[in-house]
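hey m, so remember when u said the tokens were messed up on ur end? i reran from scratch. heres the input so u can diff it against urs
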Amino acid sequence: MSSRTLERPARRATFSGVAVPLVLVAMVVVGAWSVYDLGINPASIINSMENAVAFTGRMFPLDFPPIGELLSLIAETFAIVFLATVLSVLFSVPIAVAAASSTARNKLGRGTARTVIVIARAIPDLVLAILFVRVFGLGATAGILAMGIHSVGMVGKLYADAIEELDDGPRTAIESAGTRRSQQLWAAIPQKLMPQLIATALHRFDINLRTSVLLGYVGVGGLGLAIADALRVLDYQRGMALALVVLAICIITELISGTIRAALLGGSHAAKGTWVDRMWGGRREATGTLPPWSVDRVRRVLTFVAVIGLVLWSWSVANISVANLATGVMNLPEVLALFFPPSAGGIGTVIWQQMLVTVQIAFAATFLGAILALPIGIFAARNIVRNRYVHGFFRMIIVVIRGIPELILAIIFVVISGLGAVAGTLALAVGAVGLLSKLSADSLEETDVRVQEAIRTGGASEPQVFFSATVRQSAPAFVAHMIYLLDTNIRSATLLGVVGAGGIGFQLLNATRVNQFEVVTYILLMLIAVVLIIELLAMWIRKSVR
């Protein structure tokens, strides 16, 4: 190998080693500047306390709807979210198989599948809901399709990444026996990935539950629509009562799904056979016959039947009409024509200004969220804080914060601090604390304790062990989490503008209300461009810090 060939990787490594820290420092500076430029400071927050007290007084007494109406709203919300999650899984599995390098048919197919995943992530749920409300009318159908298609961006990516991390040996061994490609994929992939597939679906269910509240503002049913209707007439007693119900549901869902995900991914299932084997009660005999029925087998089959039953129940509760679906699909080309060609509608300058504000909100919220999340994440890490009551307390704080939908936070801050970017930034910053503190705590707990023990036995104090070993090991993961949070906040800042929390979301919703759908497309293309830039930057940084 020539010396010139060896010099190229060295040069790339040197460039990354210098460029990445500079980019990260620049992002921190932009975040701090955004906080200052948006007018977020202790004085403005203190001045808002009077509004906070007044808002609290207008909230109470909380006005809960009659129990029958409340249960109906909860059931409709669950049905919408459940069907959207099921739809995303059904779409994501074939797309992930086509996108994974080990199972893709060719480079063109893999590139196309990856492009579909990126575009699905880049288009906000809100934009899809606006489109589908126009096609299928108000109600559950628009929300199910919007969340289901958008979820492919995350679910499909995680599934494809998981497939690529599998050992391809079993599939190639089956291929050498002359089996069809479908047989190879079915035999080699679902059995090993099923726990992770289910865990990812549960995580997406949590996200879709929060998103459903936002989509109520464009006519999707359930609790979100009821909250939107109440707050539209300034009925804070009913709106906040329903928001409290959403908070309770989100926390309960988070605890249940977290427990299930931990059981699926943390258990010793590999030693007991594949998931499909266990689904049917054990491994098949050499003759190909199924083993006798057992309690475990009956339980798993009943679980499968229950899922099918939930799908049918959700379909009934959501009141989805096959005839309306068919009519909507037939009208889809006509509706899509309303969105083209893209146009700024004479307000191009305003749109670009609000897009800049959206980016500022995302950077400022990420900056503030990181400052608040770091200490919480440290105290929530079990290997840092040995006292189980202390780290348990901070873990519970994280669960509660994560359970609050950002839209509810935005509404509260809009009432307290007024319309504008300050409300959106504070709402996203609080939401960022829930996500980033959890990811930080998990990263700290995943560090190699042997390195820490080696330094500790050398006479180092606990702070020295923490900064020289624990922080150093978890720093790359924390950087990756920060970039992911910024990416998420760009999308969220767009959506929160719907309730007046600053940014491009208000222009998006306003264009919809006056039927300027070409402006919606113009704004969407801007969003996709920004998201793709952040996505490319994130990929480069993650690759460089590994």
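this time it looks ok to me. The longest helix spans residues 3-37. if urs says something different then somethings off w ur setup not the seq
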